[in-house]
Amino acid sequence: MVPGAAGWCCLVFWLPVCVAAHGFRIHDYLYFQVLSPGDIRYIFTATPAKDFGGIFHTRYEQIHLVPAEPPEACGELSNGFFIQDQIALVERGGCSFLSKTRVVQEHGGRAVIISDNAVDNDSFYVEMIQDSTQRTADIPALFLLGRDGYMIRRSLEQHGLPWAIISIPVNVTSIPTFELLQPPWTFW
């Protein structure tokens, strides 16, 4: 069976609008592109937190994606100075998603991308929900597949770089399909 135009739209772009048109909801997606280092210059897919955190009011053409130290970001960050006015990349585990988001916010981060700690996860998005503490966070919080987070960190380590340069959010509907460079290890 060959999918119709709406089916191809969902297959290629995974837009919430297409999903909603079919009467079910999987996830809302937000895209960002790594600009540097060049070996991971791909468009990555992330999902926003379900019931906490802010939204992107601005498109950042070039902003640093700084891996947090320690990676789980459950307390004081040894590289918090570098996260100020940038976006932090943290790993799942050790504390709640909301706690991680608040730690990055307290260090002046503009957003947090939380990658799964299962580095072989290349297809399952976790729904990030608020913990039971009644706390809030104002910055955007996104969930990234474990394989994607691992590959970004690995590239930075291989190049001896303290951060990646990204563009976020990216509107994939304005990119021709043949130019939509998604990570080769992630197949839809």
UniProtKB/TrEMBL annotation:
PANTHER family for the chain: PROTEASE-ASSOCIATED DOMAIN-CONTAINING PROTEIN, PROTEASE-ASSOCIATED DOMAIN-CONTAINING PROTEIN 1
Signal sequence coordinates: 1-20
The PA domain, residue ranges: 65-149
Subcellular localization: Secreted
InterPro entries according to UniProt: PA_dom_sf, PA_domain, PRADC1-like_PA
Pfam assignment, any one: PA
Task performed by this protein: Plays a role in the modulation of physical activity and adiposity.
Record keywords: Glycoprotein, Secreted, Signal
A Gene Ontology cellular-component term: extracellular region
Protein name (Swiss-Prot/TrEMBL): Protease-associated domain-containing protein 1
